[in-house]
Amino acid sequence: xxxxxxxxxxxxxxxxxxxxxxxxxxxxxxxxxxxxxxxxxxxxxxxxxxxxxxxxxxxxxxxxxxxxxxxxxxxxxxxxxxxxxxxxxxxxxxxxxxxxxxxxxxxxxxxxxxxxxxxxxxxxxxxxxxxxxxxxxxxxxxxxxxxxxxxxxxxxxxxxxxxxxxxxxxxxxxxxxxxxxxxxxxxxxxxxxxxxxxxxxxxxxxxxxxxxxxxxxxxxxxxxxxxxxxxxxxxxxxxxxxxxxxxxxxxxxxxxxxxxxxxxxxxxxxxxxxxxxxxxxxxxxxxxxxxxxxxxxxxxxxxxxxxxxxxxxxxxxxxxxxxxxxxxxxxxxxxxxxxxxxxxxxxxxxxxxxxxxxxxxxxxxxxxxxxxxxxxxxxxxxxxxxxxxxxxxxxxxxxxxxxxxxxxxxxxxxxxxxxxxxxxxxxxxxxxxxxxxxxxx
Amino acid sequence: xxxxxxxxxxxxxxxxxxxxxxxxxxxxxxxxxxxxxxxxxxxxxxxxxxxxxxxxxxxxxxxxxxxxxxxxxxxxxxxxxxxxxxxxxxxxxxxxxxxxxxxxxxxxxxxxxxxxxxxxxxxxxxxxxxxxxxxxxxxxxxxxxxxxxxxxxxxxxxxxxxxxxxxxxxxxxxxxxxxxxxxxxxxxxxxxxxxxxxxxxxxxxxxxxxxxxxxxxxxxxxxxxxxxxxxxxxxxxxxxxxxxxxxxxxxxxxxxxxxxxxxxxxxxxxx
Lengths: 441, 271
Prior knowledge:
A: two-stranded antiparallel sheet, B: flat
């Protein structure tokens, strides 16, 4: 009633209930049977629209031909080994206390941890990584803690990983089982024997799980994308394969062969791994016949797929500066492989230059600030960086002046020596036309 | 000259470790010919180096304007060996202004001569024998009649030669093809992996040598394609690039070190 006041609701009951007989109305105003007034008020002071409990049923008592009392009695539990006597309230019927074990004793389950004898240990269970003492301790803890290995690992006196403990326990149990069994066939069905514990797999599994758990949202999204992409590729490949004949050649002999041939013409620098990436080779190797130049084009495209147009142009510029044909004139297998590798190396070179430039940009802003404690090295690094920058810029163009064949050859001869020349003299001493500006790097 | 010496015997196949696997396609019928044609030699690719192009002669001032040049378009083996073992016929697609612009050459040497005045792109379609490949391969070549150097009158003695080198690659040749051309000089068989059991070589064709271009009347104009030059150039270029990469990597590590000024020198971390 007070609630209604607070809420400002009308005091008259709802119209539906008004349609009922006046009895509910009367009931609401006097104390109803069966439940106390306060409880009734909790429901809003009116009868529920659909009476869920028949009020007159509420206080019905069971046929009381029995005499029930409650008594404070002692009891024992079969789960306890120590004969401790506790007391609790017991429902006594007609003076007869209930019989039977403590009702919760049946929940006292424990694991059957195998106990081995010393002879058995000597015979089957010796292990270089485990002393008998440790193994005994392990089994003792296992029994105490019901194979809760996390706790066991925590309580174990010497530091051991959970996987090591598990491995030792399971292998020992397994060996004992097999040793004690009258015939191997009998224990073959035992889960310990059927599925042995695999330590490495477990370690790997846990590591992978933790990685997945610690993935950021960003990584999750990326993984999902990659998987979707892979699925699409696999499906398109299946479709293509189903359309063609079902055999798949793999030109994996490109790599080792061309490496051997490349060593022939005096290439003394250890060639970087001359391996044609398999996915790049896929488009041309699913054909029955193709031209070497076509394959090379595909692979060049694949290799530079991640690079922007500007980078590709710079690669081509570099190739021209090095006097290498953009498309080989004699496209043999070896030549194509070398060409591809050269392109990749040029890409690496350009990336490194970009990195270096960024680092130096970082460094210069840094250097202007806090280099008070290392004056000598700061000056040195500045000079070195400047010199090297010049060197880098000059070598990009390899000193080639376009259109002038005579000068070109001369510059080319100077090639290897030029490096030392440049770095020894400070920047600006050489007035050589530079095709590439510093900003381009 | 390109290194297209074929070695008939199996050399130490130390390079690759995959044993030869022959896989069967389709149904296994009793027809043994069909079977061998369907079986493919895995992990081996046959390579046929070819040169194709045109040679054009100026016919002099006496020739008519519309027939000012006599030119020949051809496809030949890079070492002038007979391509007939691989190619069944070649179709040259000429400019529509020619009579019957689609010319089929059924036997080696695969060439075609014509007279004309105009430069255009010639389509060359290679059709292979049935056991080689059932798809044709298309090439294109621009017919060049007029020399680069436009100074002075054209010579009737010296032709304008435009040749392109390329290699036809058969990634998984059929056993039949492989057996047939194992010892053929026009086809380059790579070093075979260890444990490779070669299919028995077939007798060489009787009229071998008739389709080659070694004594071709135009052979004096054929260009020499040496992969050695290109390889040398590539190797030297790679050397230069690699040297720069090393230098840059060193510089990068130096710069990285410089960016940690607050750490004392003793705990300098080198990348």
